[in-house]
Design goal:
Elements lengths: L7 E2 L4 E2 L1 H15 L3 E4 L12 E4 L1 E2 L2 E6 L2 E2 L6 E6 L2 E9 L4 H14 L3 E7 L4 E6 L7 E7 L19
Parallel strand pairs: 3-8, 4-11
Antiparallel strand pairs: 1-2, 4-8, 5-6, 6-7, 6-9, 9-10, 11-12
């Protein structure tokens, strides 16, 4: 016998627990949606007129673009920039022994953000990545004009092509 799902429990006059659980789950999913930042003044422009910068990459996060906070809520996936020269503040995301011992204090001392200068062009997409060399270089990769939009979403990038 299939139990009929009812929004209200007639006996107790309350909203069914399943409904409350479903509504809570939906609100959590929508509150964690990936966002895009517009990092320039004025009205929005077409993707062909701006540069798109993915704000995360293997082992790195872009914290600031031209002095403006990029990771405001922690849900930002990419930013729209005007073409030209930009200064990025990039933080390495790594788990090291000192993090386990003294946490955020050691991370702030030994893992200071790096400043990276780059230049972008209209209609092109860019990603950041950590180069595991002696200097701990941060590379900015030009992904061209046909970068798969799924690659900009940290939750879905594995579904994208050539991310």
């Amino acid at each position: 016998m299939i139990k009929k799902f009812e929004l209200f429990d007639r006996k107790k006059g309350r909203v069914a627990k399943r409904t409350v659980g479903l509504l809570l789950a939906m609100s959590l999913l929508t509150s964690c949606a990936v966002e895009a930042l517009k990092m320039y003044d004025g009205p929005p422009k077409l993707d062909t007129d701006v540069s798109i910068l993915r704000l995360w990459g293997p082992g790195v996060m872009v914290l600031k673009v031209d002095g403006k906070d990029a990771m405001v809520k922690g849900t930002e996936g990419h930013a729209y920039l005007l073409p030209g020269d930009h200064t990025l503040e990039v933080k390495l995301v790594k788990l090291a022994g000192y993090n386990l011992l003294c946490g955020a204090l050691c991370d702030s001392i030994f893992n200071r953000p790096k400043t990276v200068e780059t230049s972008t062009q209209a209609g092109r997409s860019y990603t950041v990545r950590y180069v595991d060399d002696a200097a701990g270089t941060i590379a900015i990769d030009d992904k061209g004009t046909n970068y798969d939009p799924l690659c900009l979403d940290p939750r879905r990038y594995r579904e994208g092509k050539n991310c």
